[in-house]
Write a structure and sequence with these properties.
By secondary structure, this protein is α+β, with helices and mostly antiparallel strands. The protein has one domain. The protein has helices at residues 4-19, 70-79; strands spanning 24-29, 42-47, 50-55, 93-98. It has a four-stranded mixed β-sheet with strand order 1-4-2-3, with helices on one face. A hairpin with a 2-residue loop joins β2 (42-47) and β3 (50-55). α1 crosses α2. The chain is globular, with a radius of gyration of 13 Å. The two termini are 13 Å apart.
Length: 103
């Protein structure tokens, strides 16, 4: 069963993926990411095949006074340099680790 938070994060990621075609978003099960269930949903960022950032769990990075939205999540990703600030920056891969994979 998927949590409400996981569903909301996934909706935000879908929106961001449409806006940022230079970033590759990948969804995987938390066990495949070798994570504990308490750490999801999480976002892991890779550049050149190497992990350089992780938000585990990502919901803890959303400011208390902010709504969970694509815009808020984008600001968090930029703060941690997981999302390119400028179009000419090297593309990243962001993995979304979650409880359930929808097929």
């Amino acid at each position: 069963m998927q949590s409400h938070v996981s569903e909301s994060i996934e909706d935000c990621i879908r929106t961001l993926a449409q806006r940022h075609l230079d970033v590759r978003f990948v969804k995987l099960h938390f066990e495949d990411a070798e994570m504990e269930p308490a750490g999801v949903p999480a976002l892991l960022a890779y550049r050149g095949g190497e992990k350089f950032a992780g938000l585990v769990p990502v919901i803890q990075e959303i400011p208390d006074d902010a709504d969970l939205s694509a815009r808020t999540l984008e600001m968090v990703l930029k703060r941690y340099a997981m999302m390119p600030q400028e179009p000419e920056q090297k593309a990243n891969h962001i993995c979304v680790a979650r409880h359930q994979i929808l097929r």
